[in-house]
Automatic annotation (TrEMBL), chain A:
Any GO molecular function: oxidoreductase activity, acting on the aldehyde or oxo group of donors
Domain Pyruvate/ketoisovalerate oxidoreductase catalytic residue range list: 14-173
Keyword Transcription regulation included in the entry's annotation: no
Keyword Oxidoreductase applies: yes
Domain Pyruvate flavodoxin/ferredoxin oxidoreductase pyrimidine binding, chain residue ranges per copy: 212-450
Pfam families per UniProt: PFOR_II, POR, POR_N
Species lineage: Bacteria, Bacillati, Bacillota, Bacilli, Bacillales
Coiled-coil ranges from the UniProt annotation: none
Name of this protein: 2-oxoglutarate ferredoxin oxidoreductase subunit alpha
Automatic annotation (TrEMBL), chain B:
Protein name per its UniProtKB record: 2-oxoacid ferredoxin oxidoreductase
Keywords attached to this entry: Iron, Iron-sulfur, Magnesium, Metal-binding, Oxidoreductase, Thiamine pyrophosphate
Domain Thiamine pyrophosphate enzyme TPP-binding: 48-195
InterPro entries membership: 2-oxoacid:Fd_oxidoreductase, OFOB, PFO_beta_C, THDP-binding, TPP_enzyme_TPP-bd
Residue stretches making up the Pyruvate ferredoxin oxidoreductase beta subunit C-terminal domain: 199-263
Gene3D superfamilies: 3.40.50.970
Classification via SUPFAM superfamilies: Thiamin diphosphate-binding fold (THDP-binding) (SSF52518)
Amino acid sequence: MIDQLSWKVGGQQGEGIDSTGEIFAMALNRLGYYLYSYRHFSSRIKGGHTNNKIRVSTKQTRSISDDLDILVAFDQETIDVNIHEMRDGGVVIGDAKFNPVVPEGSKVRLFSVPFTEIANELGTSLMKNMVAIGATSAVLDLPAEAYTEVVEEIFLRKGAKVVEKNMEAIRRGAVYFMEAAGGPLAGFQLNKADGQKRMFMIGNDAIALGFVAGGVRFMSAYPITPASEIMEYLIKKLPQFGGTVIQTEDEIAAATMAIGANYAGVRTVTSSAGPGLSLMMESIGLAGMTETPLVIVDTQRGGPSTGLPTKQEQSDLMAMIYGTHGEIPKVVMAPSTAEEAFYDAVEALNIAEEYQCPVILLTDLQLSLGKQSVEPLDFGKVEIRRGALDLNAELPEVEGGYFKRYEVTESGVSPRVIPGMKNGIHHVTGVEHDETGKPSEVAANRLKQMDKRLRKLKNLTFNTPVVKYTPNEEADLLLVGFNSTRGVIEEIIPRLEAEGLKVNHAHLRLIHPFPLKEMKELVDSAKKVAVIENNATGQLANILKMNLGSHEKIESILKYDGNPFLPSEVFNKCKELV
Amino acid sequence: MATFKEFRNSVKPNWCPGCGDFSVQASIQRAAANVGLEPDDLAVISGIGCSGRISGYIKSYGFHGIHGRVLPIAQGVKMANRDLTVIASGGDGDGFAIGMGHTVHAIRRNIDVTYIVMDNQIYGLTKGQTSPRSAEGFKTKSTPEGSVESAIGIMELALTAGATFVAQSFSSDLKELTAIIQKGIEHKGFSLINVFSPCVTYNKVNTYDWFKEHLISLDTIEGYDSSNRMQAMQTLMEHDGLVKGIIYQNTQKPSYQELAHGYSQDALAHADLKMDEQKFNELLAEFM
């Protein structure tokens, strides 16, 4: 019996590869297994190789695995492209239709199962993926009944007969495999899972859910990979709360419309990826200068320019911290799991209103699109804090008739009112301005307002700016990362420890303002620091060096070929470093 | 009820003496009072350029944004609080050059915003460069040999983009301009009001006298029907766009706010943000 296995299904894009993986994963999720998946896809609608790699485990896991136990292939290309990932003794199940072959000398076991033929016998070739699922389940020794619930949910609206046909396809696939293999294969049966019901969602789902729970009632956004799911979820859900989403003409409109709506008092977000964020840079400066709350999600993908639109990368970091001309207060948050993405989406809204500034919620493609098992989310932790905005305030009449929206205060945060409030009239402008918002170029005023704005984040309170694993007071190696690399780092720590190394881990959940105190302690107490990131220039490592010095001990482990790190890659590089 | 004086503040505009924008400002203030607004109920959103400063010269909520983005900001404000009257305002460079992408989409989206453009056919604040409304052959600092590009026929363009309210006026005609702005505010949907507002410093061609000579009032065209889109287009083309009055109005088409699925009848800005736990659990269950 085993505790985890890695499964992959591949074929041509548009052929139902995703749904095959989805049904397989959902059934296992309901049995209480932890799942983590990563989709390989291209920037096209139909055609081209696509695959869905799914990790099944009895324990929480947030990384893809080094090797593959089972490969389900709908074409020969899937075998050719993925065979190198197969472990010795792994199983390849191919559709008999294309006469699957594996390279000579390969130590995998190949089974040819007539997916298409069996499906045709049952009435439609569309069910070939159900036959494939059946064959897979036979390898795992999972009963077909494990799929009943999921199949019913998907097909019941098409009638009980369709449900029965699909279940039959699963059973036929299983029976065929059992006969071909002479029974379940040894070494592929998973230990029983805990049976807990967990959500199975992508990071973008978690963010979108966080926004709805956190009081977002309006969104303006422009479609882009890998961010669109956030907009699509809000399009579905916001009308249930009286809100709505506008798909704008571009990302500049998305950001500025969100600024207008936030100024007028509605929690409004926008989401995009690198190219969209580049277009939003001037607007981010406007939000900073006008002290308008604004939450923007940046789902990082391969850059620069159009780059690798469907591939993993973490190269927007510097742009998110420093982007926009001039100097503004800005917060950059980086959740590393779907759970954190949910809570951070809520918190980003609170911080944006409390500190009246733009907040970038940074993710990466692997976190945004990787589907994973998610522990129950705690409703009790969802709170809405609007800072210095009191919608029911009875404002006194003020001399001159202008409210001091930019009043210089000790914290830097000024009282906020919204249009429509009596005695709250003030002016807002991206031009340097005085306390009432009137444009002013007077040097003394400039200093006061600039200092006031930049002072706001000095008092930023942030729960868990760094996610830490620190069993060692003095570590041989400190591993540092942000966003989705958390999974791969957590996976290799036990392996490094097994080699006798003392390893600490720091994952930055708050990138900017930089969590100096926490990071300094950790870096100071480590002999070597390895910063693991998906970019070519070591951006996070440079941020660390800039803030902490310690250049001599900070090393980079980088990957920027578009694919997430494999555990063995990071493990081997870490060993080279120490 | 507020009078137009209550929409005044003590800020002295930094426009040149004789600038057409003064009259546009006064017309907005009068129109706001005429439709019965209080200063608290009005938000004036403006762009960048000489005319963009207008949000600071009117006693109301005001937002002076970034160049070319007046319309997305204004639409965001209106979507957030449908009880507010939202006026967007800026120049021809702001709206028809850098901001043209937004102008066309604001027109077809039809959110209830009144967009008043102060059209002087030149870039004033940057000291005299060509604008997308400059005529062919117009000499400026950036077109010393005369512009070789065509001027945008903005009224015609608005009609083809699906506008529900298209009007044009002249800053000298304070009374007519006030009446048009008033109608624009009352129109349920997006209204585009292009106002010829001469730049006395940098445009020596399109002067007050030039407009007086060239502009034709639609009132003088017998049988002109502003609900007839075809006639509107034909009239604009016959007169090279140099007409004034309400060119076209479609009162049948509901505004975006009326059509947006699920969008609350009450101002979103006052919505209760707290979700109840049962609803939260329902949302979670969809992922199980």
